[in-house]
Amino acid sequence: MAADGSLPGGKRELETTPILGAGRALLLAFVADAQAELMLRDGLAEATAEPFDIHKGGIRSAITALHKLPTPYSLIVDISGEDEPLTALLDLSQVVEPDVRVLVIGEINNLDFYREVTRGMGVREYLPKPLTRAMVMRLFVPIILGQHTDIQEPSGGRVITITGARGGVGATTLAASLAWQFGVIRSRHTLLLDPDLHTGTAALYLNAPTGPGLRAALEMPDRIDDLFVERAAQVLKDRLHVLAGQESMDDRPVCAPDAAPRLLAALRRRYNFIVIDVPFQPAPLYRDLLDMASQRVIVFEPTLAGVRDTLRLRALHDGQKLQSPTVLVLNRLDMPGALTLTQIEDALQFRVDMTIPDLPKRLAIDANMGEIAVRERGFLQLRVRDLARLVAFNPLLDTSAAAVTARRGDDRKPIWQFWKKK
Q: b/e string for 208-235 if b means 16 or more Cβ within 10 A?
């Protein structure tokens, strides 16, 4: 399932049976009635030697359980009795990893519904009740074993890049805080990626360890697979992982030309959100990461140099076809000697999406202590929550009429003001 609220979509070639990672089962099922459970067990037992669990309950039970359990590679859910099954499937998409193969059973025997869930939402297969052993073996088993030649490719997790228009404007703090919001507060499978192998501080701000995995992935992308990603990323919390390195200053890793797309392809299969702290430097790796982003965020300060560099960076972004407009975050709005919001927007000739006040004392203490400021309730947490609503493009967050209006740019107020009223 994808992090934008949809299930897998798009074609792909013949896939292979996955290598089971730590804690991930090949198959997990949630079924509402005994007859369907019996048919599933009979249909699946002879087809796979891997053990699998079938739990009593429908899709809501699956959603509750998967808040705590690792996502399996294949998931069978029962939507019987659901008044709004499509909404339930969207809710399910928020608690599973993007590469899960979702199979659905239910009582609806309607061609339009079948097309909606398998084509519009990307469910791998839907079977109406009553199930038979033959149906399960013929339609479910090939997908579970990765032998289906006409199945859907997960569109993958959402890649969000955070870039400071200049150094020291708070982009890394915001990236770490946003990853914390998604992974810890919102319980989404999230990775914070810091591609700066020499001076990156994203892991430092979260008091997270670094490792050699990122360098290995960039230098030898042929080694990248799902198991490599699981081993390379450092677990900070259950659903928040960090991928960063810390190389010697006199060491010069050589990044392979196809490293960025191959790394992101593997990460998007594993995580709903990949938050990347991308420096504003003309390095090929950083440009590749920006080019492949689902959503770009530019952070800048209210200075003349900040406005100039924001215009330059935004012009670079405008040359690419993005899924979503670039989000502009104005940090330290009321710092001494700063330009006003009106002056900044007049100079930019477009609206700033969100503003953050000057909080130098609190943020300096947190950074030096290796903590993240957004852990505590406060002004910054509200801003990061609102930024998450802007960049997630996801039903879990805000879809109010005011938010939609703000997103279109129909009002010049900073966009966070709309949500603060709620």
A: bebbebbbbbbeebeebebebbbebbbe
